[in-house]
Amino acid sequence: MSIWLAIPGLGGSGPAHWQSHWSRALPQVRRVVQRDWDAPSRRDWVSTLDAAVRGSHGEVVLIAHSLGCALVAHWARQHTGRVRGALLVAPADVDSAAHTPEVVRGFAPMPLQALPFPSIVVASEDDPYVSMARARQFAEAWGSRFASIGAAGHINADSGLGNWPDGLALLESLRAPTHDEGVVNTL
């Protein structure tokens, strides 16, 4: 059985967030817990993620949200471990002062190298933290499939997704033996 590591962004994912629903409902989900959710340090967060991957038995699937997507991109530049794939949801544009707060600027510049594992970038048309064009640019640079879910805000608790079954379906498609590249407009 693979381990699914839920990687929240700035502030962590509260109890109504889909990552929290998955953590409670699915025994294979483990949350990566950062020391400080509100004043993120790229070095500390990368180290924490690396320890979580190394401490997991078997293959690992990364499930990142917002700043967690930038974290995965930074981590993947130096580490790979046994990562089977990554679901990268609502990547925060850490390079943009217009879209993200100053506290995340330590994660800039956003790495734009291909990821060494299959991945899917999931974006919303009205996400205040990243434009659709920028989310597509991340997907292309990372070699990720791209999935637009329409207007769903930041794809967080405020989006009202609950346990987000469509997100689980995307995750299952990532874990399938074959991984088709390209753009997916779904959900």
Automatic annotation (TrEMBL):
Pfam families: Ser_hydrolase (PF06821). Coiled coil: none annotated. Keywords: Hydrolase. GO terms for molecular function: hydrolase activity. It comes from the Bacteria. Gene3D superfamilies: alpha/beta hydrolase. The keyword Plastid does not apply. The keyword Hydrolase applies. InterPro entries: AB_hydrolase_fold, RBBP9/YdeN. This is Alpha/beta hydrolase. It comes from Denitromonas halophila.
